[in-house]
Amino acid sequence: MEHSVSLPRSLRDFVERQQTVPIERLIRNSRRPSYPYCEYWRRAVAAMLLSGRVAAKDDGFPNMTDVNRICKEANFDQYLFEQTGRFLVTAKIIQPDERSSRYEAAQFSDAFWNHRLELLQEATRRAFLDFVQQFTSFRERRPTLAVSSKLDGLVALFAAAFADLAIPGDQAGDVFLDFSQLPAPDLICLGKQMGLQLRQRDVDGWNKWFDEPGQQALLSALFVSNWAYIADYQKQSWFYPSDTGRIILGLLAPPELPAPTVDFKVFPNLCVFAGADLPPEKLVPLFRHCKIKRIDRVFEFQLDKRQLTETGSQELLGRNLREVLEESGPLPATVDSLLRNRPVGGEIRIRGCSAIVQPESAEVLDAIRQHSRLKGYLEAGAPKGYLLIKQQSNPNNFVQRCKELGFKVTMLQR
pTM of the prediction? Predict the structure, then answer.
């Protein structure tokens, strides 16, 4: 249900002067808003980041080499993964682990997994402002930092004024600029109706954000936050605020959550089905230790000996994969047999000056040679029972990755 507001005259006249089209013409199906940020694919990206299979770069965002690898396995759009990962990190739902290159739960993780709207509103409004700052070049002069700009308030006023209307996509930035220059008392009046605490100086500073780079920064922040969309209609692109944005900004009452999908089944053919609404304690180990076959309302995984060998040397979140799978019921004999063959961990000894690696056993040596995240460091022609790190590779990176994967590393004296 839309919250009703009364537009001041100057705002009504402004809207009437614009070229608009009803949003309902752009959307074929009936408009039923969905609950913000509860999409199955968003939960899948969160679980994949927490699984440890995607490393964080220095800026905190996902390493695209890892993203491309896991997206190819899961047949998932790598660009959607990148954007969603960027959103989850910026909204402080997930954060890089300071002790490693992995990810861990952040301040608003529980709000995300358990759909706590008030906390999600706090997290994502702040994330929107952070995105505006991220997309604004440091060379551009602004009256304040984005976090203090109240630009989320401007977007709320704009969405209220253009309720159920779309504007030409190529004019959106200029329309925001012109809207920000409407009489400040009228903008503040509309804000009061919506429960926004806006001051004269807030409104006076908005237009300084809307040179061409600023317009692009605002629109990019809206799109990555899923607060606005572009749709094609009659050979023209149209811009409109999304229901997600309206709910987060308090303009639209949230719908009821859909019935949770909590299917969980392990099959004799080593296939595992897991509903997208299962808690992360169940989902994350599956994304960590299994091959990802399908991302949908019910995720499909495949238990695979090689995958277990690469990931089974450490137990994510202190939970054993067997314990997770047993919550679905008695395990099929094929699954039980596979899990009884414990994957390889072990110890390796490294002499740094020559980059020679001495695994403690032939089993550990073979495991490193075959590991998709380690074999690229290795040079051919190593002495029997040893491994050689390539000259052009950084041994420190090899050591760090071995530790992350659960191998015990001992540095030999030179």
Answer: 0.81
